[in-house]
Structure formats: C-alpha cells, structure tokens
From TrEMBL:
This is DNA-binding transcriptional regulator, MarR family. It comes from Streptomyces zhaozhouensis. Keywords: DNA-binding. The keyword DNA-binding applies. GO terms for molecular function: DNA binding; DNA-binding transcription factor activity. PROSITE patterns: HTH_MARR_2. It comes from the Bacteria. The keyword DNA-binding applies. GO terms for biological process: response to stress.
C-alpha cells in the first residue's frame, strides 16, 4: 500500500487539530483563544507581526487583531526596535510567558496522552522521522 504525502499531511493536520481542540478549555481558562495562543507562542521566535503572519500562515490583518487582543490582556507589549526605530517589536510580559508556558504544558500533556498509544520504540522512531523531515535539504 502506497501512502502519499497528502495523506500523511492530512493525518498530521488532523492530529494537531484534535490536540488543540482537546485543550480549548485550558486555553480559555488562561484567557486565550486558540489563534491568540498560536501568536503568543510565536512571539519570542518571531517578534514582528509580519513575521508571525508568515510563520503561522495567517493574514497580517488577523495577526494585528490577535496582537491587539494579547496586548489588551497584558500578555505582550510593543517596544521600539533598537535596530530600526521605525519598527515595533513584540515582547512577552511575565503574564504572557506564564500563560504561554501553561498552555504549552496542556498541549504537551494532551499530545503525551496520544503518544502513550504507541510503543516507546515507535515514539523514538517518530522523533527521528520528524527531526529528519525538519532538517534542511542537502
């Protein structure tokens, strides 16, 4: 039986959606909607809204709304970029860091519940495969 990339991509996407859906209540308890969490989780790696939009494949206008909401909730703040004074960069607040970390812990716990369904050997192999898929092409 041949499994093509589209089938694997679809299965992976479904798994990620199921895990996110299972954590909706925990996110809501933290004051986060799902996409707000995704933006919050991306801030340290991509501190500019345009970069976040690109990384998450979201429209820039949507990211602007999420950033505004997260700032109003006290999870992020805007600072003038030291390198380019015309730009603002996003920075996590202490509350934002705590909320992000708690949300990531909830997602990790749900993902771990899913991983428990497969053998330790298969988990090791899955890690190897995912790491290989993420490596830059040679």
């Amino acid at each position: 039986m041949t499994v093509d990339g589209a089938q694997l991509w679809t299965l992976n996407q479904r798994l990620l959606s199921v895990v996110m859906d299972a954590c909706t209540r925990e996110l809501a308890d933290l004051g986060l909607e799902t996409k707000e969490f995704l933006v919050l989780a991306e801030v340290e790696g991509s501190p500019y809204p345009a970069e976040i939009a690109t990384a998450l494949l979201l429209p820039r206008a949507s990211v602007t709304v999420y950033v505004r909401n997260l700032a109003a909730k006290g999870f992020i703040r805007r600072e003038i970029d030291d390198v380019d004074l015309r730009r603002h960069r996003l920075v996590l607040t202490d509350d934002g860091t705590r909320a992000r970390d708690r949300a990531l812990a909830a997602l990790a716990a749900e993902y771990d519940r899913r991983l428990a369904r497969i053998t330790p050997r298969d988990r090791t192999e899955l890690r190897r495969i995912l790491t290989e898929m993420l490596a830059p092409p040679t």
